[in-house]
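Deliverable D4.2, example record:
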Amino acid sequence: MATSVARAGARQRRTEFRADLPGSGGWQRCSELLEDVARFEVWRKLLGEWLRERFGEAPDRTTAGYVMSWYLSVPAYAAALLMSHERRVPLLRPGELAFRLGNDRPHPDGIAVLGAEFYCLPDDPGAGGPAATVVADEHALAAVLRARYIAHAAKFIPVYAKTTRLGRRTLWAAATDALDNALWWVGRQDGDEAAGAAEAARVLDARHAPLTSASALRLSADGWTRRRESCCFSYLLPDESECAECPRICPR
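Output generated by the structure prediction step:
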């Protein structure tokens, strides 16, 4: 898997993507947060300080919403990037994913995929190796990505729910947004939003519970856009309003 991750990381521009875990630099495994909820509280405190420096306030629901979405972006982006660039899906176990928070703002600006095992197509150069599980075709690979991502989100949501007043439906809506967005963003970063939208439509071809919807991406007169399933609560900040595609103001 390491070679695959290295090639994907070389083409990825906005988030450092790697297959090892440096001994320094603030990297933490997802499993460490899920086993110690105090780490989420520290993260939200850092975010609160960042928001107060810029807005003068840090509403509780806003810090909860940001951290919720940022955490979910880690397994979502890792899966989307490797699916797009390598036609591989990592297992996305919390112990096999790590991330680092940025210095400019406390969001994940580095992601590491640490597990060696992966799912792939029959023509993958590593298909015959012991780390590979071969699936029949693109649709089967998309189904595996969705299932592995849901499995990770299902470990996160009950843990994070204990730290916030956000309900389970909101948390699963955010999980849906993170996956749909990640598949779209990878296509956009590669200069082909339509390809990202097609990937999202294959992975989220219908509503697969507990996810809350199929892909919400659509082509408008202004380009690709999507209706959010969850609210980020940015509107609670001074002089901010709901996002254009916020579920609070957009009819379903």
